[in-house]
Amino acid sequence: MKVFLDTVGCRLNQSEIEYMARQFLAAGHTLTDDPGQADYVVINSCAVTNQAVVDSRKKARQAARAGAKQVVVTGCWATLNPQEVLAMGQVNRAVSNADKLRLVPRLLGVEEDVLTSPAVARRPLPGRHFRTRAFIRAQDGCENFCTFCITRVARGKAVSMPAERVMGDIQAALESGAREIVLSGVNLGFWGRDLQSAMRLVDLIEMAADLNPGRLRLSSLEPWDMDDDIIRLMAKGRLCRHLHLPLQSGSAQILRRMGRRITPEEYARWVDKIRAACPQAALTTDIMVGFPGESLELFEESLDFVRRMNFAAGHVFVFSPRPGTPAVGFPGMLTGDVGKLRSQQMRAVLAESSRRYRESFEGQEVKVLWESVKPIGEGRWQLKGLTDNYVQVSAAGGRAMWNEFSLVKITGLNHDGLDGEIIEG
User: Fold this and answer.
1) In terms of Cα–Cα distance, which of 353, 275, 356 is closest to 316?
2) pTM of the model as a whole
3) Dihedral, CA atoms, 163, 168, 169, 175, nearest 10 degrees?
4) Please, which residues have CB within 8 angstroms of residue 328's CB and are 6 or more apart in sequence?
5) H/E/C letters for each residue in 128-174?
6) pLDDT (tens digit, 9 = 90+) per residue, 125-179?
């Protein structure tokens, strides 16, 4: 049987379809990059914004039109609106997050333990999600109360995966050739607080680093879960010099209305500490514009703060009212194209700080893990990969060095990354 797996949204969703892939492979099935050839298509959906729902619906519709025999939608959209998913008429099943990790054994009619053999190696997913990086599920659910976010409803309370299971999944990925591990979770900084031990996230990072992956990275971390020991591990090279710290707004007033447990000043102090210990650390973020009550003055306050933070990159979202969240009833909803215009302004600020950050690498030698290879002529390949600070580098090589490290001298900037020349690798 052929299986096509796809996802929308966070890195945790990516880790979950990788887990499903191992289960299908353990049962003797194959993965395909063509939904039209698939007996089963599984879409791991997202509902964090209205656009995420649109994207999830589009993927399900495309799979059905391509000729997939069975289309299954799981994830946050399927959890919050299962009837809406099934009403499409092109989806055979809607599976909630609570049942997501039992989806494969139930589809196949086998016991779950039959599909968890460590002997089954991880394989990169064919198609758009072909990654050298292995996304490892360490945590699920959320204990935060952001007034705009539906994730806590869709994912439930925060739950930590036992350290032994996380280490087992990492070891299986390393034995199958993965050179970079990404610890993933909705509320990753919560890890360990619900376990009967004194372990916390920094201890999990130390354990993972002891397995000697080529690289170890965190998916995302709330700024109030930052820890001096995490900075120490970055400075020692045991953790990638990249942290994704969602800010959401640079306005103290808007942060309070959002239910965010930090002020701009506290956020800035963590940024200063990280950069003092790791000067070229990449700090990336999420910014929301158009939150109810965001006046022009408060937006400009946020814009100015983001400008001062000099982020390496960031995602910008226009506020999307989600039924079931407190912010739906807040006064001061923006109308017209105000959100769109503010998004454009915020993106321009982030684009400029990203350019400045990338310029700091010109003339330097960096280590790159190649994730994309394409032939460009006789014996020549176009390579793209990432530095540990999550900057994309492009270079030409004499062979297809997928999933290999190279030392690269940076020669200039391109649209969204860096150009370089391979020195060795």
Assistant:
1) 353
2) 0.91
3) 150
4) 321, 322
5) CCCCCEEEEECEECCCCCCCCCCHHHHHCCCEECCHHHHHHHHHHHH
6) 766 666 688 999 999 999 999 999 999 899 999 999 999 999 999 998 999 899 9
